[in-house]
Design brief:
A four-stranded mixed sheet has the order 1-2-3-4, with helices on both faces. By secondary structure, the protein is α+β, with helices and mostly antiparallel strands. The chain has five helices and four strands, in the order ααβββαβαα. A hairpin with a 2-residue loop joins β1 and β2. The longest helix is centred in the last third of the chain and has 14 residues. The termini are far apart. The radius of gyration is 13 Å and the shape is globular.
């Protein structure tokens, strides 16, 4: 399956946390920055990306606890392509939405990769 096909499938099956974050990031409503969701980059599909700032925002569920090595390899590759990767757990996005929003905004404005 191509990355584009995988991205389409992922967009239609978003998690609750991804839907919450997408409501914040879409339509340039987040500080005027344009984000795309479930965007293919190389062989990977990232949850959210602002190409202008080369910032990727990932939302991880419990399954990622078993994929630590694969996630680290994926992050290294994306960083090697010039992207910064910020990761949040689903429960952070759902329960600490304002802190996640602030952390993403800080990453966009400063180039840093903070976590809430």
């Amino acid at each position: 399956m191509s990355a584009t096909s995988r991205a389409r499938r992922l967009r239609s099956g978003s998690t609750d946390a991804e839907r919450v974050l997408w409501r914040l990031l879409r339509n340039r409503e987040f500080g005027g920055w344009k984000f795309r969701r479930q965007a293919p980059i190389g062989r990977y599909v990232v949850d959210f990306v602002c190409f202008e700032k080369r910032l990727i925002v990932e939302v991880d569920g419990g399954g990622h606890q078993r994929r630590v090595h694969a996630d680290a390899e994926r992050t290294r590759w994306l960083e090697g392509q010039g992207f910064r990767v910020v990761r949040f757990w689903n429960n952070q996005v759902l329960g600490e939405t304002a802190a996640v929003e602030e952390a993403v905004l800080t990453a966009l404005e400063t180039g840093a990769s903070p976590s809430p």
